[in-house]
Write a structure and sequence with these properties.
Pfam families: NiFeSe_Hases
Radius of gyration: 22 Å
GO molecular function, one term: nickel cation binding
Keywords: Iron, Magnesium, Metal-binding, Nickel
Cofactor: Fe cation; Ni(2+)
Number of helices: 15
InterPro entries: Ni-dep_hyd_lsu, NiFe-Hase_large
Strand content: 15-25%
Shape: globular
Length: 450
């Protein structure tokens, strides 16, 4: 649907809704009086208020509440919240519990990226010229049942492995303040490993599909618009990690990587609120604008502890160069991350079930502050909490991937609009192109407008 109105500059139109993203949003295009594109911007159309909802709540309950911030990233919000409260209380999480948390999150990462491929990104690649009414998972299944079946089979295997390890398929409550609610026994670990081993071939075939479609797309789409600014991710020893210990940034234009401690990173974040939507974009001083998420992690590169993912990543970079700076590389990046998460989880499970069985450490709540920074499927995620003397939350702040991506997304969207929109009457092809540009940032509106 197109909505046309007058603006201070000239006329403006809104393309609503942006489909195949998480949450409700539209694209607003502003024109000069000469009907030339002045600016295009992504607008989130909802707000959750979940930060305020947890104020006054007992700290130990907060991670379970924040797990509902969004569907895809819920477990990562749950973990970030637990880690922020642990940071405030000085809790030493048992090593076995940390390992179990990490295993669950690698599996959640793999599952989430596969879902994103199937439901949000693949229709643009598999059915590029089709009408919007059939550009969805049902339309893909009608023309390529085998590919959808392979991806669905991988997803089922990972979901079953998660169920074996966490004993709860929906919003697993395994992650709690101080550790986890329970550790799997060796039988559960063996069953999970068997399930993951069984989906190896389908994962590799899905990577080949992503490569083939990316190759075709790079020939079909002729655009001079590339990603500019910086890519950013959490790292450990210079490699991307869900539970890293530093932030790594590098320019899309090429150049040396820069790293910073989490405290330095949080101190460098600046809010850039805008009056036209609920999201509050975030800028990182010295690295503006920045992009977080799959492309950022793939550009930093995987390590030798995941040789399969590293080999596949090297293949992709050999074909298209480094860094990957075009939107159509997202499909390959998602497929790479599915393999990466799968391989990371297998490595941790291969160590066997914990012998010590120490699942959780106690937390002494007092007036204090804490924070946590980790990488979620959408990118860098940070939580900061302040506790009162009664152990209740006095303030809470979430910094989400969409907030970090907001400035670069709107800059990129404006340049794409300038290239594709030829006047106030926006064609279906141009509208589809703009929606696809938004999807290349994999925006999660509930996370961004918490």
């Amino acid at each position: 649907m197109t909505d046309r109105k007058e603006s201070a500059l000239g006329e403006k139109i809104r393309l609503y809704p942006v489909t195949r993203i998480q949450g409700r949003a539209d694209i607003e295009i502003l024109f000069t009086p000469q009907q030339v594109v002045a600016e295009a911007r992504f607008r989130a159309l909802e707000t959750r208020g979940i930060e305020r909802m947890v104020v006054g709540k007992p700290a130990l309950r907060v991670p379970q509440i924040l797990a509902r911030t969004c569907g895809a990233c819920g477990p990562f919000h749950q973990l970030a919240s637990a880690m922020a409260i642990e940071s405030a209380c000085g809790v030493e999480v048992p090593e076995d519990a940390t390992s179990h948390r990490e295993t669950l999150c690698w599996l959640f990462l793999a599952a989430t990226q596969i879902k994103t491929m199937i439901f949000q990104i693949l229709p643009d690649f598999a059915l590029p010229m089709s009408d919007a009414a059939v550009k969805n998972i049902t339309g893909i299944y009608m023309v390529d049942q085998e590919s959808v079946s392979r991806l669905s089979s991988v997803l089922v295997s990972i979901d079953k492995a998660l169920e074996e390890l966490s004993r709860n398929r929906f919003h697993p409550g395994a992650i709690v303040v101080g550790g986890v609610s329970g550790l799997p026994d060796q039988a559960a670990v063996d069953r999970a490993l068997e399930l993951l081993d069984g989906c190896a071939d389908n994962l590799h075939e899905s990577m080949r599909l992503a490569e083939m479609l990316t190759r075709r797309e790079s020939k079909m789409v002729k655009s001079d618009v590339s990603l500019e600014g910086f890519y950013m991710t959490t790292t450990d020893a210079g490699r991307p990690a869900i539970l890293g210990n530093e932030i790594t940034c590098a320019p899309f234009a090429g150049g040396e990587e820069s790293t910073m401690e989490f405290k330095e990173f949080l101190a460098s974040i600046e809010e850039r609120p805008v009056p036209w939507f609920y999201l509050k974009p975030l800028a990182v001083t010295g690295f503006e604008p920045c992009m977080v998420g799959s492309l950022a992690r793939v550009n930093v590169g995987f390590g030798p502890d995941t040789p399969v993912a590293e080999l596949e990543c090297d293949r992709v970079l050999e074909q298209w160069g480094h860094p990957l700076d075009r939107e159509h590389f997202l499909l390959a990046a998602l497929a790479l991350e599915a393999i990466w998460g799968w391989e990371k989880a297998k490595n941790l499970l291969a160590e066997g079930a914990a012998d010590a069985r120490e699942a959780c450490a106690g937390a002494r709540l007092s007036a204090s502050n804490g924070f946590a920074v980790l990488d979620s499927p959408g990118g860098v995620l940070a939580h900061a909490v302040s506790l009162g003397s009664d152990g209740a939350v006095s303030s809470y702040k979430i910094m989400s991937p969409l907030q970090f991506n907001g400035i670069l997304m709107n800059s990129y969207l404006s340049r794409v609009a300038g290239e594709t929109v030829m006047g106030i009457e926006v064609s279906d092809a141009a509208a589809s192109r703009l929606a696809r540009a938004v999807r290349s940032f994999n925006p999660c509106v509930p996370c961004g407008t918490h």
